[in-house]
């Protein structure tokens, strides 16, 4: 028997990213969905070595779930849209 999916959407606009300090995380306010806390994290990296030894800037965006793993196995699948 297939377990039903639980779906939700989190939207957040991170502002002033160009002036953000390097290696600093920005979090949106934690939201609760299906009794589980969630937040989106944005991290900026500067002067990282890219291909051919060039330096560049890049960022990570990820979904954070601080729920303890005491409830057995579970899976998170995400879809991200950047605008």
Explain how this protein is built:
This protein is mainly β and 83 residues long. It has a domain at 21-69. The chain contains no helices and four strands. The chain has strands at 25-27, 31-33, 36-49, 55-64. Strands 1, 2, 3 and 4 form a four-stranded antiparallel sheet that branches. It is elongated. The model has no long low-confidence stretch (mean pLDDT 77).
Outline the fold blueprint.
Blueprint: E1 25-27, E2 31-33, E3 36-49, E4 55-64
Antiparallel strand pairs: 1-3, 2-3, 3-4
* Distance from first to last alpha carbon: 38 Å
Strand proportion: 35-45%
* Mean pLDDT metric: 77
Order of helices and strands: EEEE
Structural class: mainly beta
Q: How many individual β-strands? A: 4
Task: Give the structure's gist in a few sentences.
The chain has 83 residues and is an all-beta fold.
Keywords:
single chain; 83 residues; mainly beta; 4-stranded antiparallel beta sheet; 4 strands; MATH/TRAF_dom; MATH domain-containing protein
């Amino acid at each position: 028997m297939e377990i039903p999916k639980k779906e939700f959407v989190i939207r957040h606009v991170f502002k002033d990213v160009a002036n953000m300090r390097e290696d600093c995380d920005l979090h949106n306010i934690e939201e609760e969905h299906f009794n589980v806390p969630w937040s989106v994290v944005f991290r900026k990296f500067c002067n990282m070595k890219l291909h051919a030894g060039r330096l560049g800037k890049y960022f990570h965006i990820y979904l954070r779930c601080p729920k303890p793993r005491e409830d057995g196995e579970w899976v998170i699948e995400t879809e991200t849209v950047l605008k």
